[in-house]
């Protein structure tokens, strides 16, 4: 089962985040084979971390909750909240298989939250700039709760346009970059 996990940083937790950096990396090293995508999100200054995205393939919701809430930064209070949802990999690949590579261009996390219609997400006609794309689902995988997208785009407005605004109660756009030691 695939899961989308977004730890959002607590205000003024940067020093703690930095201090726990190696512990976080070591923890994630234990999930290297299960990770589909990962990486930090940033504030508009492109320097201040605002969160941490992990898309991971785990056996069940209990294993996903353990993954999210045993993470050293979460345990120490770096994060203010965690969005954890079942997810389905509509591209069938990991971020490391993204044809555009790890560098070049701006990257974004786009979250479409609270679908207003029960149609489910549709892949955009052009998938060339998509790093990861899939629905956010209930624990049993039957209810569509939103959509999570990682993509390369020239600006936040272009990134936002990957999701149709009439399908969602809210669309969030966050600067994102490839993470991991690979």
User: How many separate helices?
Assistant: 5
Name the beta content range.
35-45%
Strand segment tally: 8
Give the N-terminus to C-terminus distance in angstroms.
Answer: 23 Å
Oligomer: single chain
Q: Structural class of the helix and strand makeup?
A: alpha+beta
Query: Cα-atom Rg, whole angstroms?
Result: 15 Å
For the report, how would you describe the main beta sheet? 8 strands, antiparallel, barrel
Mean pLDDT: 93
Poorly predicted sequence stretches spanning 5 or more consecutive residues: none
Shape: globular
Helix content: 10-25%
Physical arrangement of strands within the biggest beta sheet: 1-3-2-8-5-7-6-4
Question: Please, could you describe this protein's structure?
Answer:
By secondary structure, the protein is of the alpha+beta class. The protein has 5 helices and 8 strands. It has an 8-stranded antiparallel β-barrel with strand order 1-3-2-8-5-7-6-4. Strand 2 and strand 3 form a beta hairpin. The longest helix has 9 residues, at 21-29. The radius of gyration is 15 Å and the shape is globular. It starts with a strand and ends in a 6-residue tail after the last strand.
List the helices and strands and how they pair.
Elements: E1 2-9, H1 14-19, H2 21-29, E2 35-42, E3 49-57, H3 61-69, H4 72-76, E4 79-87, E5 106-115, E6 130-137, E7 144-153, H5 156-160, E8 168-176
Antiparallel strand pairs: 1-3, 1-4, 2-3, 2-8, 4-6, 5-7, 5-8, 6-7
Index terms:
182 residues; 8-stranded antiparallel barrel; alpha+beta; 19% helix; single chain
